[in-house]
Amino acid sequence: MTVEGLEGNGRQNLGDMPPEEFHAVASEVIEWVARYLDQVEDYPVLAQVRPGDIRSRLPLSAPERGESFDRILSDFQKVILPGITHWNHPSFHGYFAVTGSGPGILGEILTAALNVNAMVWRSSPAGTELEQHTLDWIRDLLGLPDAFQGVINDTASHSSLYALAAAREWAFPEAREVGLGGGPRGRIYASTEAHSSIEKAALTLGLGRQGVKKIEADEAYRMRPDALRAAILEDLADGIRPVAVVATVGTTSSSSVDPVDSIADLAKEFGLWLHVDAAYAGSSAIVPELRPHFRGWERSDSVVFNPHKWLFTPVDCSVLYCSRPDVLRGAFSLTPEYLRTQEEGSVRNLMDHGVALGRRFRALKLWFVLRYFGASGIRDRIREHVRLARYFAAHVEANPNWVRTAPVPFSTVTFRYLGEDLTGEEEDALNEELLERVNATGEAFLSHTRLGGRITLRLSIGNLRTREEHLDRTWQILERAAREVDERALVQ
Amino acid sequence: MTVEGLEGNGRQNLGDMPPEEFHAVASEVIEWVARYLDQVEDYPVLAQVRPGDIRSRLPLSAPERGESFDRILSDFQKVILPGITHWNHPSFHGYFAVTGSGPGILGEILTAALNVNAMVWRSSPAGTELEQHTLDWIRDLLGLPDAFQGVINDTASHSSLYALAAAREWAFPEAREVGLGGGPRGRIYASTEAHSSIEKAALTLGLGRQGVKKIEADEAYRMRPDALRAAILEDLADGIRPVAVVATVGTTSSSSVDPVDSIADLAKEFGLWLHVDAAYAGSSAIVPELRPHFRGWERSDSVVFNPHKWLFTPVDCSVLYCSRPDVLRGAFSLTPEYLRTQEEGSVRNLMDHGVALGRRFRALKLWFVLRYFGASGIRDRIREHVRLARYFAAHVEANPNWVRTAPVPFSTVTFRYLGEDLTGEEEDALNEELLERVNATGEAFLSHTRLGGRITLRLSIGNLRTREEHLDRTWQILERAAREVDERALVQ
What we know:
Two copies of one chain form a homodimer.
Chain A: H1 19-38, H2 53-56, H3 69-80, H4 102-114, H5 125-142, E1 149-153, H6 156-171, H7 175-178, E2 186-191, H8 196-204, E3 212-215, H9 225-237, E4 241-248, H10 260-270, E5 273-277, E6 302-305, H11 307-310, E7 318-322, H12 325-332, H13 363-397, E8 402-404, E9 412-417, H14 424-440, E10 447-451, E11 454-460, H15 468-491
Parallel strand pairs in A: 2-3, 2-4, 4-5, 5-6
Antiparallel strand pairs in A: 1-7, 6-7, 8-9, 9-11, 10-11
Helix pairs in contact in A: 4-13, 5-13, 6-8, 6-12, 9-10, 13-15, 14-15
């Protein structure tokens, strides 16, 4: 990227970068981006740098005088890029693999250019209404009832925090005024496999770590409703106030599916708020044959799912659906004088649905993604990812040295290398080393978790560039790494 | 924007939009953006639509089949743009005026393209280290001590929530484990002029609305330290546990400045966490002659300031500096197995500093802004905005029909039209009508607030395109609207 002859223009007139300079630099940037997206396989997946490497290449203080974009973009390539772990790489399979697709990136460009802040309707009518409209479209695609109203947040951690704040508002209506101090303790129930964001939400909400009771999961990592019932009864006997139960469809470790319908029965019986964490798997409810995994979520009070995970939308974009939006607003609505508007009663002000007051125009990228791919295009792509996950799982299943450690309902495969005559701890160490070796190649990136107390590897598919050949190659790398680690183990 | 001949390409192969299509569409988009930024004055500032107008122009369900970008961009222009309130317009003076400058937009393009999620160091070493590095640069420019460590959040509401969560962790160390239930009540002190996000944080944290005590402000809307002391003593006598005091430098209504140094004395005396809300004015500490407004903030425990407000960075970008980062981490750190990494002990994982786990690579745009304008370029621009605010204030002061309602320490002017022989309520109604008339012209956008119980108009400057001529024009519009409203009042 080289942009010459325009240096300093924007720095003399106290204004912004001049439009002609912006156009020239942006054209170079766009060209680079198009090439990058095409050739992302040329980069190592996991950044091959050590902690501190990037900082050591940066000057100790901000420049006193402005610099040319030529120089800035050159540093971007020389200093920043080597420190990028390429989530765009087709062999990125860590955490949950994602794609910030072309249409989504185009949406981000316009969002950045418009730079609106949709805190109240009037500060961005289109930002407000397109968010509501797009989320209604998606709600219908997911098969959720009309009662569910959506709002976009940055991350699932915040979406779940807001949902559980609404649950607390429901269980402790007095807390909005006087707080939790002096009152009884509250409890949120979630399985041992639930995401850490639930515990973080409980901490934030003043319920403490003990405010979450981890409910036992069965052999397929699904919450056991009988254990949930027992926990609720025990708490009621102890004077602890049940607040909410969190059911997960597609847990982070194994993508297991809690029995939402049975949990909904218990939520109803005991008057608990039911929050469904479908941050990863939610998008797949668009696919009819995957919809059965979600049975019961239509009875929930709130659902979180992240278009930035498996709906091809650039990070950040998390959706919170709530079928009791009045309770959510009750937990958060506070209108200072300076944000009062004439139209207040007749519009939805996005700021009333959570902590964040300001907000980017995130709906634009989501609208672009939905329109460009269309519902059928999205269904086909999610189906393909599920197919690819089963394709990879077949490699694991065909080889007696490896074991698949959980079912594969969606696009995530968990597996583990089996050493010969090793203790569980030795096998754990072997799998950990294997993981580091694979990731050090820069050819593929996997992450890990623990299932049943044992280290297990995870391969997640969500990138639109991933093909069978990438999975074959990753499998080869895993096999080679396993042989190396295993032989060394034998030698010792 | 017209992009032909490429329709449907990306929808047949189950992949992303092909690079050549992306390049063609993005080039059109960039050309549009450059023209838009150049000609933003051609649009009405405040969107001239009624609630529901945008939604009524959108189909009721998502398209089943994908659509061409030609059509999508045409709808963007026809349906979305009329619903945009143009924060980029040089006569946007509502809330706090902002600029998502050219370099910032370029940063956003690359952030969207890279699409990394910097939750732990390894998932984006450059995202993690550039954030820390850029925030160290800014800390030094602001004159804050080295003890302050920064982290980027989306909004000041979240930054303040996290700061006050750390304060709660400090005041109620037991709450992390057992929650607030059963314990004593806690209190946060903030002036009557403090932002509503402080109350929202108290709600969220389980301290309730009563968890915030509003401290009286003086005639210049600054917190009165003697009133603060009295409130703390009263609470201590009542068995309520003081948690934190929030001092504001640049309040939202009048941009008043609390006496941070005196408040810091009290915070020290009573062992309270001191949080400084400088969301708007913080950037101006870069300017030596404005630095005195911030005296005492170097003694605080946390500071929030928003580069997306007055540091020319596209929304969202809020910085939380904390001089006790260990307490902040204590409030939030929770590492699930799947996020444990080999380098854990030797790196900073951004997820440990708040609720959000995932996060965009927001530091890139900030780095671009700092480098392109340079420290001196930023200083000059902030100085110019302060000069322009005084220029506008001079219009108000020169006219006996108007009154300036608060001092102008930064770039925000508050003022009010004085009717003849009107009651306060009648004058309020007149000023409210005046505001709606001015905004309905589409030529300028102002917002309002209440100061001393009375409606007051606000004009804020933060847009790099604003020149004296825009302020002259806005003044003309205000004068004309005032005459019209006043004459009608006389007729009635």
